[in-house]
Write a structure and sequence with these properties.
There is one protein chain. By secondary structure, the protein is mainly alpha-helical. Helices cover 77% and strands 0% of the residues. Helix 6 (100-115) runs antiparallel to helix 17. The protein has 2 domains: 2-84, no CATH class; 123-183 and 261-463, Orthogonal Bundle (Proton glutamate symport protein), CATH 1.10.3860.10.
Length: 464
């Protein structure tokens, strides 16, 4: 009965959305005339149905999407009221910002000290790191090219900022830029939100930790793992405020800029998915063919973990099945055990592409021109910061906020992205899993540790 009720509710929701959209289009193009009150009432019915549906689904991604729709309605019909909702999004922003430093420090230090023991893993380590850096850098540049071609953030209008001084980007000399990368006082770096300095400190700390005695290292790693896990849980708790923050931010933005900003959001979403498809076709597929990977068999086996990551918006949820799939493909278990977890910290192809695209979108939305030098500095920053989190839904929001702060960009346009972040997270998580699976195959082949099933050997020769 409950299942039937959910199905009936879904049909009612889809039907009301379809009818509502059709009637609004007919009224907009003057085909028919409908009273304003009737259209408003129809939108309210849709909002009520969406709210009931989201309560039944009990999924954060659904809540965020519904809150975005309700925010559009509030901003359009009650602009004066929506103009006072901004404080809710600001509270959420402050809470997310305070996660950045401890989360990056713990995850990066663990990634280096816990997985990158070069004395033990030898050639696999440096080959993996080299592969990760090359592929993720290519992903960053594809994101930059796409966002500069489509320009989804342009013509949004003047976004009201909390602090107008933040958009004044001071020009720095090359020497000042280099010196600014390295921390002088880690407490000062944390208080000022200097994300790149925190990353450098975390990397050096991780290297130092990997060089001490095993007993001492184990104690510190255990502590850092507890810190990282606590910060992930902290983030999960804060994310329950996301629907309210997104709804409030969208309502405020619509009240200030009008309904036309929705076109930019759809443009951004389309740009991301086209970029992800281009990355897989232009980068991952040629790598697979060049390294003589059995492509058809690989696609068949990786489709399940990639679909799981897409549905859950978390690449970590697909990790166990991805490891099983790669072992079934013929990858050595010891290579999988090292490369796959390491890739989840250093080889997030979909996330890095998204971050470069989203960072430029923020600048475009704020009307700030990023020079080529600034964009290259952003790529260098993201090459490091994008390695700091993995497998957590919407964790890229933390990195995006840190990158915006490092480049002197305003953070308000990020809430425009957050409104469709659930849809964007699905695509980039699936690409993250696909890229990591391919990385294990490539490294395994380089090391001579790839042994496909006998029935798959002819297919391998055919690909070659």
């Amino acid at each position: 009965m409950a299942a039937m009720s959910k199905k009936s509710l879904l049909f009612a929701l889809v039907g009301s959305l379809t009818i509502g959209l059709l009637l609004h289009l007919l009224d907009f193009y003057k085909v028919i005339y409908l009273p304003k009150e009737a259209l408003t009432g129809l939108r309210l019915v849709v909002c009520v149905l969406l709210t009931v549906y989201s309560v039944q689904r009990k999924k954060l991604s659904v809540w965020i999407f519904v809150s975005m729709f309700i925010g559009v309605e509030l901003g359009y019909d009650l602009p004066e009221f929506a103009g006072h909702l901004r404080v809710i999004s600001q509270v959420f922003l402050k809470l997310v910002k305070c996660v950045i430093a401890p989360l990056l420090f713990a995850t990066l230090a663990i990634g280096i000290a816990g997985h990158s023991n070069l004395k033990q893993v030898g050639r696999i380590a440096w080959k993996s790191l080299l592969y990760f850096e090359v592929v993720t850098t290519l992903a960053l540049f594809i994101g930059l090219i796409a966002v500069n071609l489509t320009k989804p953030g342009e013509n949004i209008g003047s976004i009201p900022l909390v602090n107008h001084e933040k958009i004044e980007v001071k020009e720095q000399t090359f020497d000042e830029i280099i010196l600014h990368i390295f921390p002088e006082n880690i407490a000062k770096s944390i208080s000022e939100g200097q994300i790149l300095q925190i990353v450098i400190f975390s990397i050096l700390f991780g290297i130092g930790l990997s060089m001490i005695k095993e007993e001492q290292k184990k104690t510190m790693l255990h502590f850092l793992e507890s810190v990282a896990e606590t910060m992930f849980k902290f983030t999960n708790v804060v994310m329950y405020l996301a629907p309210f923050a997104v709804g409030a931010s969208v309502a405020y933005t619509i009240s200030q800029l009008g309904i036309g900003i929705l076109v930019n959001m759809l443009n951004l979403l389309g740009t991301l998915y086209l970029s992800l498809i281009a990355f897989m076709l232009l980068i991952l597929l040629p790598i697979a063919i060049l390294c003589k990977v059995p492509v058809k068999r690989f696609i068949k086996l990786v489709s399940e973990p990639a679909s799981l990551a897409f549905a859950t918006s978390s690449s970590e949820a697909a990790l166990p099945r991805a490891m099983e799939a790669m072992e079934e493909l013929g990858v050595s278990r010891k290579v999988i055990a090292f490369v796959m977890p390491m890739g989840y910290s250093f080889n997030l192809d979909g996330t890095t592409l998204y971050l470069s695209l989203a960072s430029v979108f923020v600048a475009q939305a704020a009307g700030i021109h990023l020079s080529l030098e600034k964009q290259l500095l952003m790529v260098f920053t993201l090459m490091l910061t994008s390695k700091g989190v993995a497998g957590v839904p919407r964790a890229s929001l933390v990195i995006l906020l840190g990158t915006a702060a490092s480049l002197g960009l305003p953070v308000e346009p990020i809430f425009i992205i957050l409104g469709i972040d659930g849809l964007m997270d699905m695509g980039r998580s699936a690409v993250n899993v696909t890229g990591n699976c391919l990385a294990t195959v490539v490294i395994s082949k380089w090391e001579g540790e790839f042994a496909p099933p006998k029935q798959e050997q002819p297919a391998n020769i055919e690909v070659n």
